[in-house]
Amino acid sequence: MRDANGLFLTCSLGAVIVIIASISFIWTPFEILMNERLRMVRGLPAYEWWLNPPDEVLLRVYLFNITNSEKFLNGTEKKLKLEEIGPYIFREKLTHSNVQFFENGTMTYRSHRTAIFLPEMNHLSLNATIIVPNLAVLGMSSYLWDSSFVTKIAFNLLLNRLDSQPIVASTVNNYFWNFTDPLVKVAKTLAPHLVPVENMGILQQIYHKFSDDVTVYFGPGNGRRFFTIDKFNGQSRLGYWPNETCDTIQGSTEGVTYHQGIKRDDVLKYLRKTICRVTPLHYTRDVQKLGMKAYQFDLPADVYMQPTDGITEQCFNHPGSPDLPSGVIDASPCNYDFPVGVSFPHFMNADKVVHQKLEGLNASPEKHSSFVIVEPTTGIPMESRARSQSNVIMRSVSGIPRVKRFSDMFIPMFWAEYNQVGLPWYITALMYSTVIILPASQFYISISFLLLGLSITSLALVRIFKLSKSNNKTLCSYSSLDLLPPTPSTASEC
Questions:
Q1: What are the DSSP E strand ranges found in 435-493?
Q2: DSSP secondary-structure letter at 395?
Q3: CA distance linking residue 27 with residue 222, whole number of Å
Q4: Number of other CB atoms surrounding residue 258 within 10 Å
Q5: Collapsing DSSP states into helix, strand and coil, what is residue 291?
Q6: How is residue 217 annotated by DSSP?
Q7: Rg, Å, the chain Cα set
Q8: Distances in Å between the alpha carbon of 395 and those of 39, 329, 353?
Q9: Is 125 helix (H, G, I), strand (E, B) or coil?
Q10: Helix, strand, or coil here: 370?
Q11: Count of Cβ atoms closer than 10 Å to residue 486 Cβ
Q12: Ramachandran angles phi, psi of 67, nearest 5°
């Protein structure tokens, strides 16, 4: 009896294997694995890698040292001479926390970024002294460009009393993290609503507020919308621009991952919080990377150029301010209205008027363009370089003699490159298995399991049949040679 039960279980196991193998011809292992990734199941590699991304993103920052400050200020030289210094290399650490899943196919989490200096990768000292624009003096002067005569008189008196200069010496570390001027402290006391922060360090301004609540789509029902943003800090818009076209975040991502099944005619939208907008990435070419076919998407050369469609130019200029030259966009709405303009590094692709009062800039598409290389099947970025330059927008500052030479200039503060340098080995191995090995082998795997299931079932059925015949054999015999006829009891056994 025990043998029979074991054979029936073996037969059932074989039948189950046959059923699973048959289903796998319709719903392939590849599709199952891809759907499981969309579910973002806790404990699986896709979720754990996203939750605490590895330290694979480097931030390289380049500064501009002013080499002729005295001659420019006294009028001996008409152009501001700049010398690029860098890179200063940091690791950008990204973490996700407070993850919540909702029944409508969205998940919300807290995204937090920090910059960690890497001494072992740097050959330049943070204690070095450089000559840089005084962001407080120039920025506040530009902010007051259209203020009343009385306001400008008061501002001039303040500048003279504090002796705040438009160009100053600073250590690199202070310029990054602790840059200020007595003017800022006094102004914050007099008008705290106009001067929200005292520390104007360029990296301090970026990272002291780099925590956001993000809601994204996930799950098999949101394949094409996977990890695109539904809400940013609880809102469906950034809140910087009155025009909804400029202000929307719908369909964009943080750049950590993209939707599966990317096509060449797709437009990848990347939310760049530091420039107050979503930027598009367009396909340019196929590339081979890590043994897999990948697509390269580039930031368009005209992304900072002024459009002429009557709608989206509203995304390029602060409402009420004069239009900017092509190649520079206004980022003041997300920088406390401080007059910051964003461009390609070294004003690549910008109108010549932007750098006509500057020397020392040498734009290069190879060094200053932005792109992402993404594996199209999984939507995982394999390498990326996001490059942009932040500049002080100097309006026509008539009535403020100390800074009049800077009127209508665009003064570079720094440019930065965010570089995803690779993927952890286990993600690369899983991606290669999913994209290359599994599609090529899943038919043979299904056939193998089908044959295995049929073999197990067949052998079990044969043994069941033999056992059944054995149990039906005659247990005694009777012939004419027997001297006694069979009794009823013996006859029943036969």
A1: none
A2: -
A3: 18
A4: 25
A5: coil
A6: E
A7: 35
A8: 51, 14, 13
A9: coil
A10: coil
A11: 14
A12: -100, -10
Contacts of residue 189, defined as CB under 8 A and 6 or more positions apart, other chains included, come to none
Tens digit of pLDDT at every position of the chain (494 positions): 556 667 677 777 767 776 776 666 565 666 767 777 788 888 888 888 888 877 678 999 999 999 999 999 999 999 999 999 999 999 999 889 999 999 999 999 999 999 999 999 999 999 999 999 999 999 999 998 988 989 899 999 999 999 999 999 999 999 999 999 999 888 888 777 667 788 999 999 999 888 999 999 998 888 889 999 999 999 989 888 888 878 889 889 988 889 989 999 999 999 988 888 899 999 999 999 989 999 999 999 998 987 766 655 567 777 677 888 999 999 988 888 889 999 999 999 999 999 999 999 999 999 999 999 999 999 999 999 999 999 999 999 889 999 999 999 999 999 999 998 878 888 888 888 888 877 766 666 767 766 776 787 777 777 777 777 776 654 444 444 444 455 554 444 44
Q: Per the omega criterion (within 30 degrees of 0), is the bond before 300 cis?
A: no
Cα–Cα distance for residue pair 137/159, rounded to 1 Å: 8
User: Cα dihedral sign for 96, 97, 98, 103?
Assistant: positive
| Runs of H (alpha helix) within 311-422 | 365-368
Question: pTM of the prediction?
Answer: 0.85
Nearest Cα residue to 154 out of 125, 191, 117, 121: 191
In this structure, are strands 167-171 and 211-217 parallel, antiparallel, or unpaired?
unpaired
Write the DSSP assignment of 73-116 as a string of letters.
HTTS-SSEEEEEEEEEEEEEEEEEEEEEE-TTSEEEEEEEEEEE
What residues pair up with 59 in beta bridges, in sequence order? 90, 418
Q: For the chain, how long is the longest CA-to-CA vector?
A: 143
Give the strand pairing for 267-272 and 252-253. parallel
Structure tokens given for 329: 């966009």
Residue type, 431: M
Structural contact between residues 74 and 353, judged by C-beta atoms closer than 8 angstroms: no
Given a contact cutoff of 8 angstroms between Cβ atoms, the answer to whether 386 and 417 are in contact is yes
Residues in the chain: 494
Among 383, 372, 386, 398, smallest CA distance to 283 is for: 372
**Among candidates 176, 272, 256, which has minimal Cα distance to 216?**
256
